Amino acid sequence: VGGVAGGHECHARMSGLTIAPAPAAAASSDAWAASLAQLAAPTTNLRSEALDQITLLLQEADWRLVGVGAPELVEALRARLSDSNWSVSQKCLLLIGDLVSDADEEVDVLVRSELLPGLLAKISDSKVVVRKAASQACAAYIAGTREPQSVAPTLVRLGFESADWKQRQATALFLSLSST
């Protein structure tokens, strides 16, 4: 697979990751299953490595889900959005940003229903790198979704109508940025 197809090399570039291409056989169902299981590992290092492996598998598959179901991947990523380690959350957000850039219809729908609330919550995170990654992922989703009109009600409900003033403020800031 020599390079990163579909312009998705930005994840590795933005996060500072150096990811070497894995052999084509690594995109098997076994590799997916192992990586998804490792996302629930008790140590930060293992969860981080699992996100790297999932990124590799997605890069090899041109960001199409091959060997794994979209619901399983989205559920695993949703759990990592609230990871106790900020660097794992950041890495997860960067991966989601790349995944949603050109998502198929199933992934688009799942991201809207399962991940968008978590993405929006992260734009008010205490760590600036997490806030930035969340904003980038949200902007990528808004730009790539098949139903951009469905994002506004979610932004209003979870952002502007939030009881948390930091969430309201972060939502307003996110929407005021020129990239959105």
Distance between the termini: 32 Å
Q: Which residues sit in consecutive blocks of at least 5 with pLDDT less than 50?
A: 1-27
Largest sheet: none
Q: Please give the number of β-strands.
A: 0
Number of helices: 9
What structural class do the secondary elements suggest?
A: mainly alpha
Report helical residue fraction.
55-70%
Mean pLDDT: 82
Along the chain, the helix and strand elements come as HHHHHHHHH
Indicate the proportion of strand residues: under 5%
- Rg over CA atoms: 16 Å
Explain what this protein looks like in three dimensions.
This protein is an all-alpha fold. It is 65% helix and 0% strand. Helix 3 packs parallel to helix 5 (86-100), helix 5 (86-100) runs parallel beside helix 7 (128-144) and helix 6 packs parallel to helix 8 (151-160). The relative contact order is 0.11.
Features:
single chain, 180 residues, mainly alpha, globular
Chart the SSEs and their pairings.
Layout: H1 10-15, H2 29-38, H3 44-60, H4 70-81, H5 86-100, H6 105-122, H7 128-144, H8 151-160, H9 165-176
Helix pairs in contact: 2-3, 3-5, 4-6, 5-7, 6-7, 6-8, 8-9
